[in-house]
Amino acid sequence: KIAIGPSIGGCCYDVDCKRIKMFKKKLGSFLEYEKKDNKYFLDLENTAFNIFIYLGILEKNLEISTICTKCDMKRFFSYRGIVNVITNPININFFYRFKMAIFPSSS
Question: What is the 3-state secondary structure (H, E, C) of 16-62?
């Protein structure tokens, strides 16, 4: 069995056209994405699923999580989610103070 754990979902993993072209060049028809309002949303779970099926892994031997880590940041870490939190002007000071409390010698 192969399990694909929680990760950023196709609902939240938006990239630009340049990144989509790079993925298309590397992954071809395996790539799953959706275009909405000039943004491209990558579906990494289903892209991986397509690759595993191509490699001969039976569907019954694949388990894919449908949990998006950015949507469920109470239970999971999401780099893209935390970047949005950190870059929010209200939160920048909090994260600076948090960093200074843990690493007081850094500037």
Answer: CHHHHHHHHHHHHHHCCEEEECCEEEECHHHHHHHHHHHCCCCHHHE
